Amino acid sequence: MSRYKGARLKICRRLGDLPGLTRKKSNKTSPPGEHGQQVKKPSEYALRLEEKQKLRFNYGLNEKQLLKNIKIAKRVQGSTGLVLLQILEMRLDNTLFRLGLSPTIPAARQLVNHGHILVNNNMVSICSYQCKPGDIIKVQNKQKSRELVKHYMNFPGLANIPNHLELNKEELLAKVNGIVEREWVALQINELLVVEYYSRK
Fold first, then answer.
1. What CATH number has the domain bearing residue 103?
2. Which residue from 2, 51, 157, 195 lies 20 to 30 Å from 21 (Cα-Cα)?
3. 155 and 83 within one domain
4. Which residues make Cβ contacts (< 8 Å) with residue 185, sequence separation at least 6?
């Protein structure tokens, strides 16, 4: 099962701020559960697991998908952690979220699944589609599609659009100009701990 359908605020209280999962903020500061008040030093394994879970919940992946992306990242030359983040950031659902066309990644996934999005004038209904430099992303020229996206644009998930993307708000047309750089990744995460987690399995 790829989508988490449970309580999102509970996940955010446990793992910290996940901009892709939800825009809601909890008033409670302690982790969820009856033992949330107890502060104890986490083990190294617990730290690595937490970073991996952040990645999973923020981008809406299941374990199998994340493992597949780790294997792809290991085959590419360069830092495995950075390549993994770039693969996840260049997914179509995340790209729509970063453009401000949807308030969260699950909302962007729904736009893609319901056929509201065109990539290079072809309808793409696969959320994990890897956007490449030069790709043109636009909203279907249907009234329902455009109204939905314009409504979403009133509540953007993040304030700034990364420098590898550009958006024409009037025409609802965007262009991918390059690969995302590390400083533009919105999620606060130590990707090396995720790589370590999988290297020990």
1. 3.10.290.10
2. 195
3. no
4. 85, 89
Q: What are 84-108's pLDDT values in tens digits? A: 999 998 999 989 888 888 888 888 8
The answer to whether residue 35 sits within a structural domain is yes
Q: Contact at 8 Å (CB) between 127 and 119?
A: no
Instruction: Quote the domain boundaries for residue 130.
Output: 91-178
Cα separation of 160 and 45, whole Å?
Answer: 34
Q: What is the pLDDT of residues 20-62, one digit of tens each?
A: 666 666 666 666 666 556 667 878 888 888 888 888 888 888 8
User: For residues 98 and 110, what is the distance between their CA atoms, to the nearest angstrom?
Assistant: 15
Residue 166 and residue 90: Cα distance in Å, rounded? 14
Q: What is the CATH number of the domain that holds 28?
A: 1.10.1050.10
**φ and ψ of 173, to 5 deg:** -130, 135
Euclidean distance between CA atoms 90 and 29, whole angstroms: 32
- Tell me the sheet residues that pair with 165: 176
Dihedral sign computed on CA atoms, order 51, 54, 57, 61: negative
Report whether pLDDT(1) > 50.
no
